[in-house]
Write a structure and sequence with these properties.
elongated, 4-stranded antiparallel sheet, 10 strands, 160 residues, 5-stranded mixed β-barrel, 42% strand, mainly beta, single chain
């Protein structure tokens, strides 16, 4: 089995979970450095990661939430069998940006300029926050998000 040492930046795809023997596992969503340069647009890549060592495991299980931007350093290991995912064994990690909101099943988080919105599959209303987490309001439906953000920017001067 071949391994390659690498550094990867990506977003935590779900809350890290405890693994066997003091490890923690999580998915890291990696975007291409320049998606426009790739024909037809490049899809995100999901890398399955396993963190070992007390410091990395503790950091993953206590301080990392879904949506956080991480820089992970470790060994990229070929899958043991054809068709299985490549695995990254994490030696060190650095939090570059924390996720403001947990990613919940059935919900989608998106950005509109300086604002973050959360679309829920089971509800019409759309909560809106600034990038720093300040409450903007709740749009009555997805089509009203732009108007709500416009009003907020006129009233507050666009402070995010």
């Amino acid at each position: 089995m071949d391994t390659e040492h690498c550094v990867v930046d990506g977003w935590v795809g779900g809350r890290p979970v405890p693994g066997p023997c003091g490890t923690a596992t999580f998915d890291l969503v990696v975007r291409p450095a320049d998606p426009d340069a790739v024909d037809g647009g490049a899809p995100d890549t999901v890398v399955t990661c396993a963190g070992g060592g007390l410091r990395v495991t503790h950091g993953l299980l206590s301080g990392i939430q879904a949506g956080g931007l991480l820089r992970v350093t470790g060994a990229l290991v070929e899958p043991p069998a054809r068709g299985e995912p490549v695995r990254l064994t994490v030696d060190a990690l650095e939090v570059l940006d924390s996720g403001l909101f947990p990613v919940l099943r059935g919900m989608v988080r998106d950005r509109y300029g300086d604002c973050c919105v959360i679309f829920g599959a089971d509800r019409e209303k759309v909560p809106v926050f600034t990038g720093l987490g300040q409450w903007v309001g709740e749009a009555g439906n997805p089509d009203a998000v732009a108007a709500l953000i416009g009003i907020h920017e006129r009233v507050s001067g666009g402070d995010a």
